TrEMBL record:
Lineage: superkingdom: Bacteria
Residues covered by the Cytochrome b/b6 C-terminal region profile domain: 28-155
UniProt keywords, alphabetically: Electron transport, Heme, Iron, Membrane, Metal-binding, Transmembrane, Transmembrane helix, Transport
Compartment annotation: Membrane
rRNA processing in keyword set: no
A Pfam family it matches: Cytochrome_CBB3
PANTHER family: CYTOCHROME C-553-LIKE (PTHR37823), MENAQUINOL-CYTOCHROME C REDUCTASE CYTOCHROME B_C SUBUNIT (PTHR37823:SF4)
UniProt gene name: qcrC
Alphabetized InterPro entries for the sequence: Cyt_b/b6_C, Cyt_b/b6_C_sf, Cyt_c-like_dom, Cyt_c-like_dom_sf, Cytb/b6-like_sf, Cytochrome_c550/c551-like
Membrane topology note: Multi-pass membrane protein
GO CC aspect terms: membrane
MF GO annotations: electron transfer activity; heme binding; metal ion binding; oxidoreductase activity
Keyword Ubl conjugation: no
Protein name from the UniProt record: Menaquinol-cytochrome c reductase cytochrome b/c subunit
Length: 254
C-alpha cells in the first residue's frame, strides 16, 4: 500500500495475458488534470453546451418559422402531400412501381421492416472486436449503401416535387360566404370545383376569390380556356353559361 496511490496488485506470471489493448489503467491518479468530478464540473459543461444548442434552435425557429397551410380538406383530390424531411426517402421509394400500387407492402412494410430488424440484430450479426471500418468490410459496405440510398432518395424527392404547385395549394386564402343553393353554384360544382375548390378557394387551379372577374372573362375562360386552363371545360347551354359566369363574377368581387 502506497499513500495516495491506492492498493497495488501483483500479477501472477503463470496466467498469460493475450492482449492488453483494452485493459484500462488501474489508477487514474497517474493522469493529473485529465479527469474531473461528474458533479458539478462535467454536468455543468453538459448543461452549458445544451443551452447553446437550445438558444440556437430558438433563434432559428424565430427567424424562419414553420410554414402554415390552409385547413386540411379530405375531399380535395388534387392535393400533393409532402412528409417531413426525414421521411422523404421513403416517400420517394413509394413512387417507384416496384414499391407502390399492388406492391406497396414492399415499400411500406417489407423494406423498412428488414432495415429495422437488421439494425437491431447488428450486435449479433457482427461480433468482431475490430473497430477499423476497413477491417469490417461487410458491415461498412452495408452502412455505406444505406446512407447513399437514403441521401439519393431524399435528393430525388426534393428535385422532383412541384414546389410552386405545393405552395399554391397550401396557401391560406380568403373565404367568402355565398348561397350554395344558387343555380350558378351547382353548375360551378359540376364543372369547376375539382380544380378551383368547392368554395372557390383554389385547389389544382388558382383561387377565384378576390379576383374581380368580369362575366365575359369567365365565359371566355370556361369555353376557350387560357393559360393552364384547357378549352371546353364547361358543358352546358348558353343559359347555364350565363348563370355560371354571373355566380363566379359575383363571388370573385366579394
Amino acid at each position: 500500500m502506497h499513500r495516495g496511490k491506492g492498493m497495488k496488485f501483483v500479477g501472477d506470471s503463470r496466467v498469460p495475458v493475450k492482449s492488453r489493448k483494452f485493459i484500462p489503467p488501474k489508477d487514474y491518479s497517474e493522469y493529473p488534470g485529465k479527469t474531473e468530478a461528474f458533479l458539478p464540473n462535467f454536468l455543468l459543461k453538459e448543461w452549458m453546451v445544451g443551452a447553446v444548442f437550445l438558444v440556437g434552435f430558438m433563434i432559428l425557429t424565430i427567424a424562419d418559422p414553420a410554414p402554415l397551410e390552409k385547413e386540411a380538406d379530405p375531399t380535395s383530390s388534387g392535393y400533393i402531400p409532402l412528409p417531413d424531411w426525414y421521411f422523404l426517402f421513403l416517400y420517394q421509394l413509394l413512387k417507384y412501381p416496384a414499391a407502390s400500387g399492388q406492391y406497396k407492402v414492399i415499400g411500406t412494410v417489407l423494406i423498412p421492416g428488414l432495415a429495422a430488424v437488421a439494425l437491431l440484430a447488428a450486435p449479433w450479426l457482427d461480433r468482431g472486436l475490430e473497430r477499423r471500418p476497413i477491417k469490417r468490410p461487410i458491415a461498412t459496405l452495408i452502412m455505406l449503401l444505406t446512407f447513399v440510398s437514403m441521401i439519393y432518395l431524399t435528393w430525388e424527392s426534393t428535385v422532383s416535387h412541384n414546389w410552386e404547385q405545393a405552395e399554391q395549394q397550401g396557401k391560406i386564402v380568403q373565404t367568402v360566404d355565398f348561397d350554395k343553393s344558387d343555380p350558378g353554384y351547382k353548375l360551378f360544382s359540376q364543372n369547376c370545383s375539382s380544380c378551383h375548390g368547392e368554395n372557390l378557394e383554389g385547389a389544382v387551379g388558382p383561387s377565384l376569390i378576390g379576383k374581380n372577374l368580369d362575366p365575359a372573362m369567365v365565359k371566355k375562360m370556361a369555353t376557350q380556356g387560357g393559360g393552364q386552363m384547357p378549352a371546353g371545360v364547361f358543358k352546358g347551354s348558353d343559359k347555364d353559361l350565363d348563370a355560371l359566369a354571373k355566380f363566379v363574377s359575383d363571388v370573385s368581387k366579394k
